[in-house]
């Protein structure tokens, strides 16, 4: 550490971070010397709550781990709990519908990321343009499931809603619209000289580091490591597709592992997702959409069953794994561990950030597409004294009552006063 | 470190059963229990395997080293942990044969340690990617990872007493934890 | 000696000009935000949003961070605002000549332009926040970079006027107003003048810390940078200073390169006798035309640029000003010099 170094905290709340987490940088001028990631500010104890609920209740909890990649959490939990309970014959139609939903989510997540990346670079025009395009896939998700986020589609033994034949034209229309429009957007990113200047050789994750840190998803694929759960261990409808992991070299860009390479990977994956959705729609097998229509029977089955299993899915951010153990006679999930993609990418993050300029911190941090809500999962709030403290049940009650009184006083007065 | 492309040429790919028998052969009595699950997917009913191996605590590091011989560099997904009465069980979920266009096998190596002596060997030196999950296990389950390069707290707040471990399920721990939990449905909020 | 009545008139005029500059500057900010929003397919805030922002900021608590040097921290917004408002007194406003034209010229304007940026940088350093300190460092680096081409442009123009119109006051806006540069140059000189104009256009967004040259504030990197610790009244003062400075920069470009009035043209082509008789009408026409020119300059140099580009890194900004833009300005100077050779 040189004499002129200083510590720069970024977080827990910072415009560069879309979710709360904490970075401590030891800086030398504009260059990052050391990085420490201190997560936990967004830890909600979801696994703790989950271990006191039955599997059907946890299903909804799992979906609420993250607002962007909600479906992959539900997917992984459904798979893990099905396997643990010995439900192995999931109707093929349900498997295809699950795949379609997961891919629609991937498109929305990647397009969202592209917008965030543009914003981190101070390129707000591109942000608004990208997010306008994202509305298309959001509309389709709403059309199928009735929700824009937290789709509530999955269910142990199948799915809740069918994609009926009359719904297919609307989805296909979206696919062709994306094929038309997305290339323009891709060009706006990849051909832009200033975007290149800000991303090429910025935030490099070498292949060696990617392998050592067990990084996952587009983060590792950008470095040329072909890890993709959809390819390596195909689950659901992916088993019928012969997929290949998307690497930057497919677009003629070397697998350098910089931010540009990661952008290329995500852009390729949007195209791949469109193909997957189209395949699944064209080849959707007929048949039921659930293993057992009666929810109580499913619950009884899970109550009696015992076993452990893991469910792995490829989230938009990379490999996602849920471990579930059910004990016979115990209604609740006995053990539940959620591991989202960002969790494995933290160490890779540290390697990428060392040597970066402050100006690059935002885009490098964003390049792994961090999902802090996924990664952090105890209620600790800054006390009113300004010191950090743990808030107890009584404190919450006190605060709650105080707010109610305040609202009562405010009643009848114009709103807009700060509290 | 071996590159995956080279690994593809050199390595004889084992099936799940073969991995299990390799472990039984090399670790002998160290292996407590094994299981191979096969799951099929899609219209084509394409299978994939999930291997479960439980070993004694003292054999845990050897087991991980052995798995690294099967396919290197090892990919660690996560270490899950749970409180099972008098013991704490940790299961490390690894993946082998990734990046070969299919046929990845999930190998979960589990081991237990008694609550009276919650020490566990760290494997962060063998698999650098394991550090985050090991730090998490330390604070949530109160196990001591022996030889961990960086054992600071990770997710839990510094203001939470260090002897509170949220994932422990025994009465004593729950009592310590109680004042930090808010049961929303009991309060009728 | 100045007549005492004249002094009063000038003071009154000056105060009115300052107030007008604040209102017009904020209005331009509103227009800029609205247009930028439409360009980004958004609806955008209402035009009066900057005024609302100011009134809201004025009501808010003004916080002094721990570890800040109190008097510098609170003094700098005042200095920044005063410097920006002083600028108003030395710039021609269309038909109105500068209220204090006899007491300062372009050299003074160049110095006064530095003060708001310097005040922001000092305020950032004094706040004790590492984020603001980085922002302030960047502001200093940026200033050192863009002041060079800016100085070249102003000095070249002044030198050109001494050469072409010997005996005129080279650093006074009135000289440019009397004889706009486009009428004095030949074809080579014309290209030279265009290059100088372009250099000034590139300097404008960084003088105003706008994207792509907003590295000192860089929301997504530094969370507001040198402005990070400012709140309430202090922030409002910087906000107003920024609005006024934007207006002043545009007025300088208009004053140096496009001082042309509209009323003679209207008079010539429409032959409205009304204008001949009523100087007030000519004033109104020229005034509106001036405001329109300022709008065009701001639209071209700030709004479109900040919509079309991502933020540049500080090392790149420095490079852009010190090498390509300075070379462009020097080339402009050279062409003007060649032009005078041919002309003489």
Q: What would you say about this model in short?
A:
The complex is a heterotrimer of chains A (419), B (189) and C (344). With 419 residues, chain A is of the alpha+beta class.
Q: What order do the helices and strands come in, and which of them pair?
A:
The complex is a heterotrimer of chains A (419), B (189) and C (344).
Chain A: E1 6-10, E2 23-28, E3 31-37, H1 46-50, H2 55-63, H3 70-85, H4 92-120, H5 124-145, E4 154-155, E5 158-159, H6 168-190, H7 193-199, H8 207-212, H9 218-221, H10 229-232, H11 259-282, H12 295-304, E6 307-315, E7 318-326, E8 333-339, H13 341-353, H14 358-367, H15 372-375, E9 380-382, E10 388-390, H16 393-410
Antiparallel strand pairs in A: 1-2, 2-3, 4-5, 6-7, 7-8, 9-10
Chain B: H1 4-10, H2 16-27, E1 31-41, E2 46-55, H3 60-70, E3 75-84, E4 87-96, E5 105-114, E6 119-121, H4 131-141, E7 144-146, H5 171-178, H6 184-187
Parallel strand pairs in B: 2-5, 6-7
Antiparallel strand pairs in B: 1-2, 3-4, 4-5
Helix pairs in contact in B: 2-3
Chain C: H1 4-39, H2 49-59, H3 70-88, H4 106-126, H5 130-164, H6 173-178, H7 187-207, H8 219-222, H9 232-257, H10 263-270, H11 273-277, H12 279-308, H13 314-343
Q: Can you walk me through this structure?
A:
The complex is a heterotrimer of chains A (419), B (189) and C (344). Chain A is α+β, with helices and mostly antiparallel strands. In chain A, 49% of the residues lie in helices and 13% in strands. In chain A, helix 2 packs antiparallel against helix 3 and helix 6 runs antiparallel to helix 11. The two termini of chain A are 44 Å apart. Chain B has one domain (4-159): Beta Polymerase, domain 2, CATH 3.30.460.80. Helices cover 28% and strands 30% of the residues of chain B. In chain B, the strands form two sheets. In chain B, strands 1-2-5-4-3 form a five-stranded mixed sheet, covered by helices on one side. In chain B, strands 6-7 form a two-stranded parallel ribbon. In chain B, helix 2 crosses helix 3 (60-70). Chain B is globular and about 55 Å long. Mean pLDDT of chain B is 84; it is low at 1-7. By secondary structure, chain C is mostly helical. The longest helix of chain C has 36 residues, at 4-39. The mean pLDDT of chain C is 86. The interface between A and B is large, with 66 and 62 residues.
CATH superfamily of the largest domain in chain A: Cytochrome-c3 Hydrogenase, chain B
Enumerate the spans of chain C where pLDDT stays under 50 for 5 or more consecutive residues.
Answer: none
Which outline of chain C best applies? globular
Figure out the total of helices of chain C.
13
Pattern of helices and strands of chain C: HHHHHHHHHHHHH
**The first-level CATH class name of the largest domain in chain A:** Mainly Alpha
By DSSP, the count of extended strands of chain C is 0
How many domains is the backbone of chain A divided into? 2
Rg of chain C, Å, rounded: 21 Å
Task: Report the total helices of chain A.
Answer: 16
Helix content of chain C: over 70%
Strand content of chain A: 5-15%
Instruction: Report the end-to-end length of chain C measured between terminal Cα atoms.
Output: 39 Å
Coarse structural class of chain A: alpha+beta
Kindly identify the CATH topology of the largest domain in chain A.
Answer: Cytochrome-c3 Hydrogenase, chain B
Instruction: Specify Rg of chain A, calculated over alpha carbons.
Output: 23 Å
- Integer count of domains of chain C: 1
Give the largest interface.
A-B, 66 and 62 residues
Biggest sheet architecture of chain A: 3 strands, antiparallel
């Amino acid at each position: 550490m040189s004499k002129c170094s200083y510590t720069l905290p970024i977080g827990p709340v910072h415009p560069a971070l879309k979710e709360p987490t904490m970075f401590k940088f030891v800086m030398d001028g504009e260059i990052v010397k050391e990085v420490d990631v201190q997560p936990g500010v967004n830890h909600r104890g979801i696994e703790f709550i989950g271990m006191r609920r039955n599997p059907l209740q946890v299903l909804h909890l799992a979906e609420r781990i993250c607002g962007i990649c909600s479906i992959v959490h539900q997917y992984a939990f459904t798979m893990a709990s099905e396997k643990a309970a010995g439900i192995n014959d999931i109707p093929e139609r349900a498997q295809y519908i699950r795949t379609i939903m997961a891919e629609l989510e991937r498109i929305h997540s990647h397009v969202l990321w592209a917008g965030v990346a543009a914003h981190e670079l101070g390129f707000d025009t591109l942000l608004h343009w990208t997010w306008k395009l994202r509305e298309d896939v959001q509309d389709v998700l709403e059309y199928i499931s009735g929700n824009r986020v937290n789709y509530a589609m999955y269910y142990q033994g199948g799915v809740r809603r069918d994609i009926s034949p009359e719904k297919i034209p609307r989805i296909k229309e979206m696919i062709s619209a994306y094929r038309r429009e997305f290339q323009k957007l891709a060009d706006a990113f990849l051909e832009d000289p200033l975007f290149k200047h800000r991303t090429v050789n910025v935030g490099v994750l070498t292949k060696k580091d990617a392998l050592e840190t067990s990084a996952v998803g587009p983060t590792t694929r950008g470095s040329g490591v072909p890890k993709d759960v959809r390819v390596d261990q195909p689950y659901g409808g992916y088993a019928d597709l012969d997929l290949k992991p998307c690497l930057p070299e497919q677009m003629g860009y070397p697998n350098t592992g910089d931010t540009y390479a990661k952008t290329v990977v995500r852009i390729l994956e949007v195209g791949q997702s469109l193909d997957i959705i189209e395949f699944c729609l064209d080849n959707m097998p007929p048949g039921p959409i659930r293993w057992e229509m009666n929810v109580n029977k499913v619950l009884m089955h899970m109550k009696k069953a015992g076993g452990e299993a893991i469910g792995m899915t490829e989230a938009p951010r990379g490999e996602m794994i849920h471990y579930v153990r059910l004990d016979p006679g115990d209604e609740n999930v006995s053990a539940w561990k959620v591991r989202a993609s960002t969790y494995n990418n933290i160490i890779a993050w540290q390697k990428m950030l060392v040597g970066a300029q402050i100006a690059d911190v935002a885009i490098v941090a964003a390049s792994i597409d961090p999902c802090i809500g996924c990664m952090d999962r105890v209620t600790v709030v800054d006390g009113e004294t300004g010191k950090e403290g743990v808030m107890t049940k009584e404190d919450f009650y006190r605060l709650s009552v105080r707010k109610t009184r305040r609202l009562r006083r405010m009643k009848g007065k114009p709103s807009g006063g700060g509290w | 470190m071996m590159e995956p492309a080279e690994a593809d040429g050199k390595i004889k790919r084992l099936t799940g059963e073969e991995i299990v028998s390799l472990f039984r052969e090399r670790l002998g009595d160290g292996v407590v229990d094994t299981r191979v699950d096969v799951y099929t997917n899609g219209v084509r009913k394409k299978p994939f395997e999930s291997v479960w191996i439980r070993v004694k605590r003292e054999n845990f590091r050897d087991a991980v080293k052995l798995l690294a011989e099967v396919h290197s560099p090892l990919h660690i997904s996560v270490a899950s942990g749970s409180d099972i009465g008098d013991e704490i069980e940790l299961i490390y979920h690894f993946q082998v044969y990734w990046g070969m266009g299919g046929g990845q096998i999930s190998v979960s190596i589990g081991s237990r340690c008694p609550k009276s002596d919650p020490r566990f060997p760290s494997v962060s030196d063998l698999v650098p990617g394991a550090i985050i999950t090991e730090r998490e296990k330390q604070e949530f389950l109160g196990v001591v990872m022996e030889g961990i390069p960086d054992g600071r707290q990770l997710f839990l707040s510094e203001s939470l007493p260090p002897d509170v471990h949220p994932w422990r399920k025994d009465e004593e721990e729950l009592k310590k934890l109680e004042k930090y939990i808010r049961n929303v449905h009991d309060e009728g909020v | 000696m100045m007549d005492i009545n004249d002094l009063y008139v000038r003071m009154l005029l000056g105060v009115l000009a300052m107030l007008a500059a604040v209102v017009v500057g904020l209005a331009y900010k509103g227009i800029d935000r609205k247009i930028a929003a439409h360009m980004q397919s958004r609806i955008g805030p209402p035009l009066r949003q900057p005024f609302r922002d100011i009134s809201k900021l004025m009501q808010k608590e003004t916080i002094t961070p721990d570890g800040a040097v109190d008097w510098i921290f609170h003094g700098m917004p005042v200095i920044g605002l005063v410097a920006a408002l002083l600028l108003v007194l030395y710039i021609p406003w269309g038909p109105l000549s500068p209220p204090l034209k006899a007491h300062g010229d372009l050299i003074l304007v160049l110095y006064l332009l530095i003060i708001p940026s310097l005040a922001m940088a000092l305020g950032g350093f004094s706040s004790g926040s590492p984020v603001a300190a980085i922002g302030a460092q960047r502001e200093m680096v940026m200033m050192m970079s863009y002041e060079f081409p800016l100085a070249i442009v102003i000095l070249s123009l002044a030198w050109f006027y001494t050469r072409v119109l010997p005996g005129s006051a080279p650093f006074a806006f009135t000289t440019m107003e009397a004889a706009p540069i486009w009428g004095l140059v030949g074809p080579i000189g014309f290209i030279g003048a265009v290059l100088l104009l372009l250099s000034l256009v590139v300097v404008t967004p960084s003088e105003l810390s706008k994207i792509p040259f907003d590295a000192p504030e860089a929301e997504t990197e530094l969370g507001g940078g040198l402005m990070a610790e400012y709140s309430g009244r202090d922030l409002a003062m910087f906000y107003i200073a920024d609005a006024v400075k934007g207006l002043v920069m545009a007025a300088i470009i208009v004053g140096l390169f496009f001082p042309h009035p509209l009323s003679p043209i209207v008079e010539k082509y429409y032959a409205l006798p009304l204008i001949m008789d009523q100087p007030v009408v000519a004033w109104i026409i020229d005034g509106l035309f001036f405001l329109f020119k300022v709008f065009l300059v701001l639209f071209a140099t700030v709004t479109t640029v900040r919509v079309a580009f991502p933020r540049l890194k500080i090392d790149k900004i420095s490079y852009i000003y010190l090498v390509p833009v300075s070379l462009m300005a020097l080339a402009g100077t050279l062409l003007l010099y060649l032009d005078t050779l041919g002309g003489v």
